[in-house]
Amino acid sequence: MKMELAMYQALRAIDVPELKAEAVIQALESDMLTLLATKSDLTNLEQRLTAEITHIDHRLTSEIHRLTAEIAKSDLKLSIRMASMLAVTIGILIGAMKVFL
Q1: C-alpha angle with apex 8: 7 to 13, nearest 5 degrees?
Q2: TM spans, by residue (predicted)?
């Protein structure tokens, strides 16, 4: 309120008509209330963003753990398949050696 009064007085001091000075002050006040963020607005936004980031971080961490477990399971399956294929290949080679030798 102090700023509006000071602005009004400054406008009147330079001979701006009273109605125009009031209109300027009202427009300024309206813009300040609708367009500008206050410290509490920014603090509230910071708290909400921090909470959202924390929530996303928890979700990503759990997803990373899930994917790590899935990769480990796939790694085990792949190792078993490779060992099985190697065993079959060695069996075929030994059988072929018996046949041809």
Answers
A1: 95
A2: 82-100
What's the confidence (pLDDT) of residue 57? 97
Tell me whether residue 29 is exposed, middle or buried, using C-beta atoms within 10 angstroms of its C-beta: 0 to 12, 13 to 18, 19 or more.
middle
Within 10 angstroms of residue 10's Cβ, the number of other Cβ atoms is 11
For 75-94, letters b (16+ CB in 10 Å) and e give eeeeeeeeeeeeeeeeeeee
What's the rounded Cα separation, in Å, for the pair 48 and 54? 10
Q: Can you read off the two tokens belonging to residue 75?
A: 């790694």
Residues 6+ apart with CB under 8 A from 18: 12
> Per-residue pLDDT tens for 42-95?
999 999 999 999 999 999 999 999 999 999 999 999 999 999 999 999 999 999
Regarding pTM above 0.85, the answer is no
